[in-house]
Amino acid sequence: MAHDDATNTMFTALLEPSSQPNKIGSVKRRVRRSASAPIDFIPQEKDDCAVPRNESIFFNVHPSFRQASLILALYLGVGAICFCLVKDQIKGRKTNEILDAIYFCVITMTTVGYGDLVPDSVATKLLACAFVFTGMAIIGFFLSKSADFLVEKQEALLVKCLHLNKKVGALELMKELETNRVKYKFFINLGLLLLLIAVGTVFLIRVEKLSFVDSFYCVCATITTLGYGDKSFSTKVGRIFAIFWILTSTICLGLFFLHLAELTSERKQRSIIKWVLTRKMTHVDLEAADIDDDGVVSATEFILYKLKEMGKVQQEDIVLLMKEFEDLDVDQCGTISTSDITLAYMDGN
């Protein structure tokens, strides 16, 4: 039963309260002062209400956002050049050749396709086919990164506003943020979507001179990429606005439904966890939790059983992890030391 002994030893070490509180305190201090730890996670004594900045999120997302921006700019640049060269083979309502080329790229890559500008030759049709596939991939990657980046930047501000009249420290804010991250993303994205709908509607009324109903109808047809084409952006100013507005509004709607699905899934998961934690244990549960068949359930076995019930871990995951643990535990003592790791990798080589 080396497998079960190793499991119990590993979990017992984690669960048992230490008899050396001073040692724990020193470890916590070393962790907090670690050079690799983000400095903004340490609460500031001078300002308990300061909103913490999640530096790890910023540095993880920002490079991808920058890379996606360069890819999008390259795509639009190449598209503008290509469609400018074949401008005479594209029919429809035209304003400025460069502006129309970029506008055509945008309505192609977002699959809006109003029909106000359409390919009118074999070459332009094949070119449009190539650009729609590459454009959908690029714009999906770019706007998902940029929207997530903007949403994450606003999450801490939203938490701060919710606790405006309370004296809440940095750690409490971080805990609140992590616990309700999906919910905040959903509501922030909903707010952005409503704002984009309002801005688009007002712009079409003021600039394109459409009625309120036609403006709202055009906005809905655009952000859903339905693009009937009977109402669209036909002026030069309108198409400049459309280049930015269409990009943001179409992906914002997609992210809204994504976050809605995430929120629904999270609530379902939380209800399962609540049910698992509140229901009474039965004899059948004890038998199922007794991994080593010794007639009793240890703390390790209890926790593993509950985690499996919650759907947090699978039996296959536990087996794989224990296999790795046994490979590293060279002396088979139930613990892993530096010498075990050294010997394990030496044997592997």
TrEMBL record:
Its main location: membrane. It comes from the Eukaryota. Residues 71-151, 192-264 form the Potassium channel domain. It is found in: Membrane. Keywords: Calcium, Ion channel, Ion transport, Membrane, Transmembrane, Transmembrane helix, Transport. Gene3D superfamilies: 1.10.287.70. GO terms for biological process: stabilization of membrane potential. The keyword Nucleotide-binding does not apply. GO terms for cellular component: plant-type vacuole membrane; plasma membrane. It is a multi-pass membrane protein. InterPro entries: 2pore_dom_K_chnl, EF-hand-dom_pair, EF_Hand_1_Ca_BS, K_chnl_dom. The chain crosses the membrane at residues 68-86, 98-117, 123-143, 186-205, 240-261. GO terms for molecular function: outward rectifier potassium channel activity; potassium ion leak channel activity. The keyword Transmembrane helix applies. Belongs to the two pore domain potassium channel (TC 1.A.1.7) family. PANTHER family: IP11374P (PTHR11003:SF291), POTASSIUM CHANNEL, SUBFAMILY K (PTHR11003). This is Potassium channel domain-containing protein.
